[in-house]
Amino acid sequence: xxxxxxxAMSGAKQAMEQQASVANNMANVSTPGFRAQVNAFRAVxxxxxxxxxxxxxxxxxxxxxxxxxxxxETGRELDVAVKGDGWLVVQTATGEAYTRVGNLQVAxxxxxxxxxxxxxxxxxxxxxxxxxxTATVGSTGVIAARGAGDPTVGVAEVGRLKLVNPPSTDLVRxxxxxFRMREGLQPADADPAVxxxxxxFEGSNVNPVEAMVAMIANARSFEMQMKxxxxxxxxxxxxxxxxxxG
Length: 246
Hints:
Radius of gyration: 26 Å
Number of helices: 2
Strand order of the largest sheet: 6-5-14
Oligomer: single chain
Structural class: alpha+beta
Number of domains: 2
Largest sheet: 3 strands, antiparallel
Number of strands: 18
Strand content: 25-35%
Distance between the termini: 19 Å
């Protein structure tokens, strides 16, 4: 009976861990640019002296869903969304990181940042908007700044967004929700084929209906495993009684 207990225990434990991942997806349904975490179960054979007739279950997160989220039109000039595949680059304490969050803003010091305050990286470094100027973003990522009263033609170019498109297999999600290159790989180079749309932003690609169904399925799986544990305990008690009065 102890084998049944261990198998059921591993199933219940992994169902709880996967439920936490699905709950995180559900909590980020409204987070701009969020990429859903992909979850899966896999069987791990129990290695021992006996025949390999049993297997534990392990919950894995093999990656993320990189499909494009819904595009919402805002009309705001500093809201951008990457067309198709590709990423915006932001600066963090540990180096460059990649995001699809395109609702940008100008910080007090003039630097272009995300709404979370992370500096946006340009192809030639930081992007700084002159005081009092209005910034616009072109389809190729070129940032133009026009001061109050300046003509609409011949506006000054501040720089160009660094847009990258590394293979999805080379990316890993960090605890901060940003993606980075796997350990040992160099930062991705700018890709001129990546373009953006302005006046819009990309929403989360989490499907709330699918996430809710997954939460219900995980809850049912956990209940089933707990029932198996209870059954194993009941069988063990019955066996003990037979041995005691046999």
